[in-house]
Design brief:
The complex is a heterotrimer of chains A (313), B (277) and C (430). Chain B has 277 residues and is mainly α. Chain B has twelve helices and no strands. Chain B is globular and about 70 Å long. With 430 residues, chain C is an alpha/beta fold. In chain C, strands 1, 2, 3, 6, 7, 8, 9, 10 and 11 form a nine-stranded mixed β-sheet that branches.
Chain lengths: 313, 277, 430
């Protein structure tokens, strides 16, 4: 029993206990590793690392006509005293938490349902997956149409419930629509990851627990969830990142409105850089976003590594 | 086992059916709008008032939209191929390599990179592309798409490679197979579902990508479908919504078809993710 | 998997090499006799209201190519992306076109993006032929940065018949009384676009604020909109909205939403522009037949009711590969015959005085004389141009958002909101 519980059962993401090169390999394996990783590393440096570093550089200056004039911490100083920046941070937090929580709960619930036996699984799963396959601009167009004043049927449906208000014209309504639209789009992916993890849990473990007399809820809490914790953690991480980067939907559906009440951080950054031409300030916002994400990322990395140590050798 | 199985099954199907409907109905809505006669657009709520396919003909017989779709296909598939190529090699190296500390560091680095706000990179990327004279080319988009998919792809692929026990390779090696033979004959088939899943995910992301192509292309004949849709949305707002809807549907079709047809492989890949230890 | 991957490496490298050697198409090929032009006119459009203008532009380009042997590469860029794309290209040293379609106040909001073309065009023929309005929009402090092919101005239209025994309101007080009367008939006074962006402020809010004696930017270009006049305008708008004299979509919708109630007949009036005939169906027929008239802009707190003027034309961005040919092309577009052709097709008012005599335009003018003379008179007497500022875009955008918020939350303290956003924008306005 103990050996089953402690065996290396893992979904994608939890390092296997016994990875490493096969026995009897040649000494040049180290160089081969480097060579294998090289294309990926090269691409990443060119497309992600270098631009990020360049943004750091830009954030300390003002850009005009192709030349960068260093201004030290001015951009950051302006940000810290800008009411709109802080408003943007607050909105992003609210949006992010709502989005992550709702998506996670929905995805977990659906994954548990899908983990049982029934017919038509593939059909349902496919249908739920379709929103994820759409482009953010396509989805944005559709959601905007559904809430247009006088034409959008969701507006017609929901408006009267709240005193004939135009949903997208109220800060709360607009944010709610954004959350719903993004959850709609993202649940499937989270669902799939969690489902995959659930399916790697050996049937035997579940059976064993049931035979031990544990009820369904108890089994869930004490056996299933802990076993897939790494995947759950990563799913939350993904959703968190997505919420910070969710500019496409915001741009198509509310454009940050009404007023600037749905101007989440990514949109704020985009506007500073592109619409207002303040590349320096925009980069500064990007740097701030980078560090926020870094904190998330490090936390999750630590959780992941700790889990692998626990489950390990 | 459980009591009243038929009721339970019914309840399940109702629940799932309802959920599925909620997820799909915005899509049904846009299909509905795209089939309405000109001028009716969004008015009339949910009624299927007509079956006018002329908007599709207009789009497909013109020059611009088919070209845009072609551009999207080229850049999406090209980028995904590049990603899969780089990721699979890298994941194999990270899974089977012997520089464990370096490996772990690299893996963490990739995980970290997934979390960078992609938007900050647009401006420097734009500058880089234009300095190299690569604006309005397929190369810049393919390379950028390729690079963007690497962190996630490496993570997915490594998970799968890790799940393949070393014994399999060792057994083949003992049987006298050389390393390349092992890779091709043994590992490749096992990893194929994951490779396909990776490819599919990347094609979809690239197909749907909007901002990057918006920045990188100004020439009409290089625009991708999402940018073309954006243009239509602006140009035809409230005058020809049916056309915009038709464009939406057309853009939707290839990824959806791809997904549905490869669905089994995709899901099988994920579901078979790990073999028991 | 690996074998297939290996096979693709040479292919990849080849593609990369091809791309790098510039098989990219477009851009500065042989700089000598090619110019790149970015415009908002869609050459493939045959159906929309803008089609005639596109056709005219295409013909002018073809004639130019035939006459001079210069190759013109035209790129269509949608109007809401054009300015930011050009700015981005110039700022980051990217692919800069030679000629760009512009609105004059954009040019002076970012003078670092557009080239000083005073010298190149000093001897051009059109300089003597254009009126003060053209110079006012494209020349500031002696420096010319654009050419204005026509002057656009905002305009208030209304259907006389719908006004059933009432006159078109011209002052803030009249708007309230007429509003009440029209409301009894189930109609709005007017629909207009007063959205939360630069255009909304330029076209709707600014003339009203200035009419009330206020300002948006001060003489140094710093934000100065937190003043009593702005608050007066906000209060007036709030009264109109709360009493139901104007639809809420004026503030929450897009351009089209600002026109729709007028098109449907739900609103008696429309605040559009001299360009509206291209976007509002039946408008030009209505104007020609006298069914639709041009009304005066609202006067607030006793000040004159203003209309905003734009120079609509072309400019040369900094860093253009071929500025010489570019300015020649600009001069070409400004000749009387081309201006006439353009004005007739795009339903605009030329800036070149001689264009009025050109047969291509004279006929159109005669048919629509009431409209043209009304617009021109307003432009001459009550026209205002937007002030310049280093933070023009950000300032007007933030102001627009604040104004929208104030309209959606009618209890909010206007002065406080305006002051706070004014201070914030001023902090990085340089």
């Amino acid at each position: 029993m103990t050996s089953i519980l402690r065996s290396d059962v893992a979904g994608p993401g939890a390092p296997r206990a016994r990875s490493g090169p096969p026995e009897g390999r040649s000494p040049r394996w180290g160089w081969i590793t480097v060579g294998l990783v090289a294309p990926a590393a090269l691409l990443t440096v060119a497309v992600q690392i270098y631009p990020t570093l360049y943004s750091f550089y830009l954030s300390f200056g003002t850009v005009s006509a192709g030349t960068v004039t260093p201004v030290g911490l001015d951009n950051y100083r302006w940000l810290l005293t800008s009411a709109r920046f802080w408003q943007s941070v607050a909105v992003t937090l609210v949006y992010g938490v709502a989005f992550v929580v709702i998506t996670f709960v929905l995805a977990l619930a659906l994954a548990l349902v899908f983990n049982t036996q029934f017919r038509g699984k593939a059909f349902y799963l496919t249908v739920i997956f379709v929103p994820w396959i759409l482009s953010e601009i396509t989805s944005g167009v559709i959601w905007r149409w559904m809430f247009l004043r006088d034409y959008g049927f969701l507006q017609e449906l929901l408006g009267p419930l709240f005193g004939d208000v135009t949903v997208l014209a109220t800060p709360v309504g607009a944010l709610a629509v954004l959350v719903v639209a993004n959850v709609w789009k993202s649940v499937a992916f989270a669902l799939l990851l969690i489902l995959a993890a659930l399916q790697t849990i050996s049937r035997e473990i579940d059976e064993a627990a049931r035979l031990d007399g544990a009820g369904a809820w108890r089994r869930l809490r004490s056996v299933t969830l802990p076993l897939i914790r790494p995947t759950l953690t990563v799913v939350i991480a993904f959703m968190a990142i997505q919420s910070v980067n969710a500019i496409g939907m915001v741009m198509s559906v509310t454009e940050g409105g009404p007023g600037s009440s749905t101007e989440i951080l990514s949109l704020f950054m985009y506007r500073q850089a592109m619409d207002f031409g303040k590349l320096g300030v925009g980069s500064a916002v990007g740097v701030v976003m980078f560090f926020v994400n870094l904190v998330f990322a490090l936390t999750y990395l630590r959780a992941l590594n700790r889990q692998s140590e626990l489950g390990g050798r | 086992m459980s009591h009243s199985r038929p009721t339970r099954t019914l309840a399940l199907h109702l629940l799932l059916g309802g959920t599925a409907f909620l997820f799909i109905f915005p899509v049904l809505y846009v299909v509905l709008v795209s089939l309405r006669p000109s001028g009716e657009g969004l008015s009339g709520g949910l009624v299927l008032s007509g079956f006018d396919t002329s908007h599709y003909e207009t789009l497909l017989s013109g020059q611009r939209f088919p070209r845009a779709i072609l551009n999207t296909a080229i850049t999406a598939i090209g980028g995904a191929l590049l990603t899969v190529f780089a990721c699979t090699l890298a994941a194999y190296g990270l899974s089977r390599g012997d520089a464990t500390r370096l490996q772990r560091w690299l893996l963490n680095a990739f995980l970290l990179l997934m979390m960078l706000p992609g938007l900050t990179n647009i401006i420097p990327l734009y500058k880089l592309a234009s300095d190299l004279g690569l604006l309005n080319t397929y190369t810049s988009l393919i390379t950028t798409f390729g690079g963007l998919g690497v962190p996630l792809g490496v993570w997915i692929m490594k998970g799968f490679f890790d799940a393949i026990p070393r014994e399999v390779e060792e057994a083949a090696a003992i049987d006298g197979a050389t390393r390349p033979q092992v890779l091709v004959r043994i590992l490749a088939p096992i990893a194929m579902p994951a490779v396909l899943a990776n490819f599919l995910i990347n094609v979809v992301y690239n197909w749907n990508n909007f901002f990057l192509p918006l920045m990188f292309t100004t020439q009409s004949d290089r625009k991708v479908a999402t940018v073309a849709l954006f243009d239509y949305q602006v140009a035809y707002a409230n005058t020809q919504n049916e056309l915009v809807a038709a464009a939406c549907v057309l853009i939707m079709i290839p990824p959806v078809v791809m997904f549905i047809s490869m669905r089994e492989r995709f899901m099988a890949g994920l579901a078979d993710g790990a073999m028991k230890g | 998997m690996n074998i297939r991957a290996r096979a693709s490496v040479p292919a990849l490298l080849a593609a990369l090499a091809l791309g790098l050697t510039g098989c990219s198409g477009g851009g500065a090929g042989d700089a000598g006799d090619t110019i790149t032009v970015w415009g908002t006119w869609d050459m493939e459009d045959e159906a929309s209201g803008m089609a005639e203008g596109s056709v005219a532009l295409r013909e002018m380009i073809e004639d130019y190519e035939a006459e001079t042997g210069v190759t013109v590469v035209y790129e269509h860029v949608p109007f809401d992306q054009l300015f930011s794309k050009v700015s981005l290209a110039v700022q980051s040293g990217g692919d800069v076109p030679d000629v760009v379609e512009v609105a004059s106040q954009e040019v002076f909001s970012r003078p670092d993006v557009f080239r000083d073309i005073t010298a190149e065009l000093a001897d051009a023929e059109f300089v003597a032929q254009v009126g003060d309005a053209e110079r006012a929009s494209c020349v500031r402090d002696g420096v010319r940065r654009c050419v204005a092919v026509n002057i656009g101005s905002t305009a208030w239209y209304y259907r006389a018949a719908d006004l059933d025994g009432v006159a078109w309101p011209t002052t803030d007080a009249e708007w309230l009384t007429v509003g009440e009367q029209l409301k009894a008939q189930g109609k709005y006074v007017a629909s207009f676009y007063a959205g939360r962006d630069v255009a909304g402020v330029e076209q709707t809010w600014a003339p009203l604020i200035i009419s009330a004696g206020g300002e948006i930017f001060d003489a140094d270009g710093q934000p100065a909109w937190a003043n009593a006049a702005t608050v007066t305008v906000v209060d007036w708008m709030r009264r109109l909205l709360m009493n139901g004299y104007i639809p809420e979509t004026n503030f929450t919708g897009d351009f089209a939403a600002g026109e729709q109630p007028f098109i449907d007949g739900a609103a008696v009036g429309l605040r559009g522009g001299s360009w509206s005939a291209q976007f509002v169906p039946q408008l030009s027929e209505g104007l020609a037949s006298g069914e639709v008239l041009v009304g005066a802009a609202p006067s607030i707190a006793g000040g004159p009711g203003h209309v905003t003027l734009y120079g609509q034309g072309w400019a040369v961005p900094e860093g253009a590969a071929n500025p010489q040919r570019a300015t020649e092309f600009l001069a070409y577009l400004m000749t009387p015959s081309n201006q006439a052709k353009w004005a007739a097709a795009a339903f605009r008012i030329p800036t070149n005085a001689l264009a009025f005599e050109d047969p291509a335009f004279a006929e159109v003018y005669a048919e629509n004389e009431a409209f043209y003379s009304a617009i021109q008179e307003q432009a001459d007497t009550v026209g205002i141009t937007m002030p310049t500022s280093p933070c023009y875009t950000e300032g007007l955008t933030r102001l627009g958002e604040t104004l929208q918020e104030l309209m959606l939350d009618v209890e909010a303290d206007a002065m406080a909101a305006l002051s706070s956003v004014q201070d914030e924008v001023a902090g990085s306005c340089r």
